[in-house]
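P.,

For your records, the input lines for the assembly:
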Amino acid sequence: MSDIEKHTIAVLVDNEPGILARVVGLFSGRGYNIESLTVAEVDSKNRLSRITVVTSGTRMIVEQIKAQLSRLVPVHAVRDLTDEGPHVGRELALIKVTSVGEKRIESLRLADIFRARVIDSTIESFVFEMTGSTEKLNAFINLMEPLGLVDVSRTGVVAISRGPARF
Amino acid sequence: MATEQMVGAEMVIKALGDQGVDVIFGYPGGAVLPIYDALYKQNHLRHILVRHEQAAVHAAEGYARSTGKVGVVLVTSGPGATNAVTGLTDALMDSVPVVCLTGQVPTHLIGNDAFQEADTTGITRPCTKHNYLVKDINDLARVLHEAFYVARTGRPGPVVVDLPKDVLFASGAYRGPETIRHKSYRPQFEPDPARVSEAVGLIAAAKRPLFYGGGGIINSGDRACQLYAELVHLTGFPSTLTLMGLGALPASDRQFLGMVGMHGTYESNLAMHDCDLMIAVGSRFDDRVTGRLNAFSPNSKKIHIDIDPSSLNKNVRVDVPIVGDAAATLEAIIAGLKAKRWKPEREALALWWKEIEGWRARNCLAYAKDGKVIKPQYAIERLYQLTRGGKDVFVTTEVGQHQMWAAQFFKFEEPKHWMTSGGLGTMGYGLPAAMGVQIAHPDALVIDIAGEASILMNIQEMSTVCQYRLPVKVFIINNQYMGMVRQWQELLHGGRYSESYTASLPDFVKLADAFGAVGLRASKPDDVDRVIKEMLAVDKAVIVDMVVDQMENCFPMIPSGAAHNEMLLGPADKKASGPGPVTEEGMVLV
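C-alpha cells returned:
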C-alpha cells in the first residue's frame, strides 16, 4: 500500500449557512480523515471564511480531497500548504491541571519552560494557555498527565504560508 | 435592466420563463400553494402533475437527457422533498441537469418541527450538486438564476432551491438572469495546452490504442459527439462506450466495439485489457467498467479528459489527466494531430484490428434461441428491428437484466436517445423518465424497456401517462424474478433464491386497462412480432407483458472481483471453471 501522508489544507469559502456542513459532510461521506479543523471569518467585507483542515491519506486520496473540496460551489480556493512550500502552523490549547503540593509546583515549573501562561488559578488548580505546534502541545499535555491533568480544549491547527505571497 | 416589483411566487414563475423553461414536473402541497396559484394565472409554463415526487425528478431527468436542457421539478415541503431524494441522487450520479424547487415551512417556523417540515437542505446536501435555502426575498431571483447556471454548466447535476412559504408571499425586486455572475463557481472549460500536446504525443505513438467514451461526451453536447466521431475516424482507432455513453458514436460505426464493462462485449473488454493507450473521454472509470482495479488494463498509458477535476485519478491513476470540456478538448487534440500532419501507423494498427476482429468473431452476444419460450434477448432484438426506419425512437429502462439486454441489443445511432439509470441503478426510473422524454418529443416513439419488478416501483405513473395522453410504450420483460438478483444468487449464493421471486404479480394486461391504457401479452416466440406490431399501431399508452424464459442469465459477464480477461461468455463458462467463478473477495463487492 502507498504511504499515508499528513497534509494541512486551507480552504477559502463563502461564509454562508451550511458551508461547514458541506465540508464536513464531504469528509464523512467519502470516508476521509479529519485530524483537525478550524474555521472563522477572515474577510468581513467579502464575507469569506477560512477553513484549515489537517487530514491524512495516500497521495491519491489527498489529491481527491482537494479536488472534491474545489468542486463545492461556495469554495473560492483550495491550497495544500504541505505541498506548496513552507508554511507555519499553530494551535492554541487551554489545559486544566488540578493538584497540590509538589505536583502543583512541578506543573508550574514545566509551564514556564514551555512558555505556557497561567490564565486562571485557584488553590488547587491552574488553567494554562499555550500556543505552538501540535507536537509541542502534545508534549506539554503528556507531561501534565501525571501532574493532575483533568481537561484540555484545543483549537486545532491554523496555518498560513511563509513569505509575502497571498492566499 | 429595469427591476420589477413582484411577490416571491410570481418571481419563481418569471425566473423559470427567463430561463427558457416551458414545462415543469410537480406535485402540489401546502408550502407551495402560492407557486401553484401563480401557475394558475399564466399560460407559458406547462405543469405536468405526477403521482409521486420521485417520478417528478425522473421525468425531469428524461426531459433533460433527451433535450440537453435543464429539467425542472416543483414539490412541496417535508414528504414532497424527501420523496424527491432518490431522483436527485440519481441525477447527481448520472450528471443530469435538474433544478428542483421545494416548498418549505415559513422561515419563523424552521426548526420547530412544524407540520410537513424537513431539513431539506440538510437532507439533500450530499445528493445535489448544490442547494440553497432562500430566507430573504431579495436573494430569490439571484438564487434561482444561479441554480440554473450551476445545474447546467461544468459537470451538470441537480440543484435544490428550498423556498419558505413566507418568502413566496413577500414582495421584492426581480432581477433578470443577465445580471448574475457567480462569486466562486468557475468550471474550467478550456484544456491546458501543455496537457493536450502530451495527449497528442501519446496518440501519435500508439500501436494498440482504444477510445473509451462516456456520458460526458453527450452532456457536453452534439458538437462533442461529432468531434469524438471525427477523432475516432481520423485516427482509425477502435472505440468502446460506457452504458451512459451509448449513442455518442453511432452503433453501426465499424470502429465501435460495443459497450464496455461488466456486461459489455468481449471485444471491448479485451481491447481495454490489452491496449497500450486508453483515451478516456467523459467517462469515469466506474467499478462496473474497470472490474478488479489491480488487473485493470495493466499495460496501457491513459489519457483522461473530464470537466470534473475530481473524476481524474479517482479510481485509476492516469498518465495525462486533462480538465476541460469534451468538445473543447477534442477540438484541440484534432488540431494538434493535424498540425503534426500525423498519419496512423498502419501496420501496427492493422495488427491490433486483426486481434480485435478475432475477439469480435466470438460473437459474444449470441444466445441459444428457443422455439417454445421467449428469450428476453430475442424480444429486445425484435423490438429493435421492428422499430427501425419509422419514428424517432427513444428508449428508457428500469434497472436489472432487461437494462443490460437493452444496452446490448438496442443500437443507438444518435446521442440523447438512451436514458437509463447508470450510477445509482434506480429501479422505477424508466417509466417516469419515458414520460419526460415523451413530453419533450410528443411525436417520437418512446419505449420503457422494463422488468416486471422494477415497473411496479413507479407503476402509479401510468395514471400520469394516461392523463396527458402520452403514447409511452412499456415493454415488460417478465421473468417473474428480480432477474439480476436471481442471477447473482445463482452465481454467488448456490442458487438460493432468497426473496427474488416476484409472487402475486398483477395481470399487466388488466392493469393497463384499469389505467386506461392498452395491455398486450406475448407468451410464445411466435407472438413476439405480432404483439410488437400491435403495440406500435396503437396511438396511446401500451403495456406489453413479454413472458420470457425465467432462468436466462445476462452474458457476457465480468464477475465481481474479476479482471476483463476473466470474462464469462455464457453458462458453459461457469461450469468449466468448477464451483464458481467468483472469489471470496469478489463476493464482498456489489
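Two observations worth noting. DSSP finds 24 helices and 20 strands in chain B. The interface with chain A takes residues 121-122, 125-126, 129-130, 133, 150, 182-185, 308-310, 312-314, 317 of chain B (CB under 8 Å).

Regards
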